[in-house]
Every structure is written in structure tokens, then in C-alpha cells.
Specification:
The protein is α+β, with helices and mostly antiparallel strands and 219 residues long. It has helices at 35-45, 50-69, 125-132, 154-168, 173-179, 184-195, and strands at residues 3-11, 23-27, 74-76, 80-88, 91-92, 98-99, 114-123, 135-139, 171-172, 202-207, 210-215. The chain is built from 6 helices and 11 strands.
Length: 219
């Protein structure tokens, strides 16, 4: 079967040096495959024992965690490599507001200042090639049609964030951007606005080049 990967065309928020509007393309995902849907898909399309499959996935998850705890990367041939990400813990001022860690002396950084902040995944080249093979693309809106950002209200943005954070505890700027089909500029603007409020419910940690957002008390 030839899959068609749907994309959308969107204007970049800033014009080029000549003042012209330029455009970018973004994937247009059609929902999320959750565990229940995954099992139903396996049962309908394959002869796999779904109970065994889920048990195997649990074992795999536990093994990945164990090997990452042992300071090893975990590679699955044909899929990719998992690696632990660590960073500096968020600091807080006297009023309890988060403050970006700031060290000018490396000798001042101790184990108490460092925490696990996530896991990076680097796909195997063969995995990317398999995605590219037998795949074509299609403009979800039709040729030449450029989309525009949906004018979300603050309430809709907060509802999306809270629902996502209840389940996942954190969200990256990119996940927020793609989850609501926003431009990078608009996603950053919303997140900066929400975390910058006087009594904000959200705060941000920078992990390398990635910005990760949390809700106070939901970590």
C-alpha cells in the first residue's frame, strides 16, 4: 500500500530580506495511536497475541530504563538509539518563582544541582529510509492552498495544555506547536505569554536546545 503523508503549507511569520512572504511545510497528523487502538489494530490486521505483545513492550521499557540507569545508551537495530538527558535543576528565588540556573564557576555545580530531564531518541537511518520508501505526499488543503493559524482563545490553549500535562507531565515547544498546528513563532508567543504571567501556572526548563514546559505541582 502506498501511504500518502499529508502536509500543509503555512506562511513564515517574518518576511525575507526583500520583504516577501515565504512559506514552510508541516506534517498534518491525523490523531494519535494510543494503546487501546494499537491493540485493536494488531488484533484485526495480524495474528499476534496482543497480551504477549504488551507484555513484551513492558519488558522492553523496563530494560531500556535499567540500561539508561547504568549510564548506557540503548540501541535497537533498525529502530534507533535511546540516550539519557540530564541537566541543571531549576532554581527558585525567595518568592518561589523559577529562575534559570546560572553558574559562573564549574566547581560550584554539585550532584544536587543535576537531574534527569528526559530521553533523546535518534532514529536509525534504515528506519528513516523505511518511512521514505513506498510513501508519497499530499497537500491536505489542495495544491497552492496555504493554511493559517487557527485563532485559539486563551481558554482553548490552557485546556489543551492541562489535558496534555495531566497525562504526560511535560510538553516541549515542538509538541505544543504540532499539537495545535501552530507556527513556531505563534507557539513560542503563547508559551512565553503563559509562563510570563504574574501568577503563572506553568514554568519552563531548557534542556540543551529544547524548551520543556511544566505545570506547578503536576511534575
Amino acid at each position: 500500500m502506498i501511504d500518502k503523508i499529508e502536509y500543509g503549507i503555512f506562511p513564515n511569520p517574518k518576511p525575507d530580506e526583500d520583504g516577501n512572504t515565504t512559506y514552510q511545510v508541516r506534517h498534518m497528523p491525523q490523531g494519535t495511536m494510543n494503546e487501546k487502538a494499537f491493540l485493536a489494530h494488531l488484533k484485526y490486521h495480524n495474528t499476534y497475541n496482543t497480551t504477549t505483545m504488551m507484555a513484551s513492550l513492558v519488558v522492553l521499557k523496563d530494560e531500556i530504563i535499567e540500561q539508561l540507569h547504568n549510564n548506557k545508551r540503548f540501541r535497537i537495530d533498525g529502530l534507533g538509539t535511546f540516550q539519557m538527558k540530564v541537566g541543571l535543576k531549576m532554581q527558585y528565588d525567595e518568592d518561589g518563582n523559577p529562575v534559570k540556573p546560572h553558574f559562573t564557576d564549574p566547581d560550584k555545580i554539585t550532584a544536587n544541582d543535576v537531574e534527569v530531564q528526559g530521553v533523546s531518541f535518534t532514529p536509525d537511518p534504515s528506519f528513516i529510509n523505511a518511512l521514505k520508501e513506498s510513501t508519497t505526499t499530499r497537500n491536505a488543503k489542495g495544491r497552492g492552498v496555504a493554511g493559517r493559524n487557527y485563532p485559539y482563545t486563551r481558554e482553548q490553549i490552557v485546556e489543551f495544555l492541562d489535558n496534555y500535562l495531566k497525562e504526560h507531565h511535560s510538553i516541549t515547544r515542538q509538541q505544543f506547536q504540532f499539537g495545535l498546528n501552530l507556527t513556531e513563532y505563534r507557539a513560542k508567543k503563547w508559551l512565553d505569554e503563559l509562563t510570563g504571567e504574574e501568577f503563572s501556572k506553568y514554568y519552563c526548563k531548557q534542556q540543551g536546545k529544547t524548551y520543556v514546559y511544566y505545570r506547578y505541582g503536576w511534575e
